[in-house]
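Tutorial handout. Part one gives the primary structure; part two gives the three-dimensional structure as tokens.
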Amino acid sequence: MKRLLPLLPALLLFLTACAKDAIPPEGPRVGITYGTIQMKLYRFGIDVNGAYRDAVKKTGGHPVLLSVRDDEGALMKKLEACDGILLPGGYDVNPSLYGEKPDEKLEAVDDALDALEKKVMDHARTRKLPVLGICRGHQFINVYFGGSLYQDIPSRYKSPSPVRHRKSKDYLVYKTAVACFHEVTIEPGTMLRAIMETDILKVNTYHHQAVKRLAPGFRVSARSLDGSVEAIEATGGRFVMGVQFHPEKMAKENPVMYRPFKLFMERVHEYRSPLKQAM
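Part two.
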């Protein structure tokens, strides 16, 4: 027994992770993607995506962990249980997905996460699931639907950009990054304008990439002072929204930032209601 005592903390972390990894017995269920580094840390009890999960729970959802480690059968079982999808922040999207070669300023990519999120979006598109993308997730939505990205925002400008989008390029996704803040202008007539109830919004910022060519079927819903796209949304009735900033990191201090999650969860409930009626 004494020999097993040193192993107990690791065992407890493993069991806790397994419990969180299970499909919640009740809905509405929201799938959240976890990449390679996120899963490595998750197995040691470090949940990089914890703030996203908390925001989903706070607004009435039950998170479902969609992992790069899931085999095809496990992933499909989880996806079939999902009523909505949240794509979180993370590493750069591989530029090969939008037909470009890597720029010298491209940072770390996660091909396994790219592949996972393509499968997830294929499923979401087929079932018309509501989708919310944040930071990298916002960028991946644009790429998935046929858009492209600036591989490095500062490289766009011959002189320094009037907007600082990140304090340092050398932080990693699993470290606590220190945010910059800047204002974005929200476009009139957009869902984002309707829920935030303002034309100008102060947001946090951690990114070095941005939407370049907007995907067909989408509109820009917010821009920063330098013209960088800060939010997009699908046209034509489907709920697919992306924001470049991180509302989940600001919501505890500023509850207004729960509004994108609340709108998302409203659409998740709307998606579920015909299913309930058919039961």
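Part three, for discussion. The two ends are 50 Å apart (CA to CA). The chain has one domain: 27-278.
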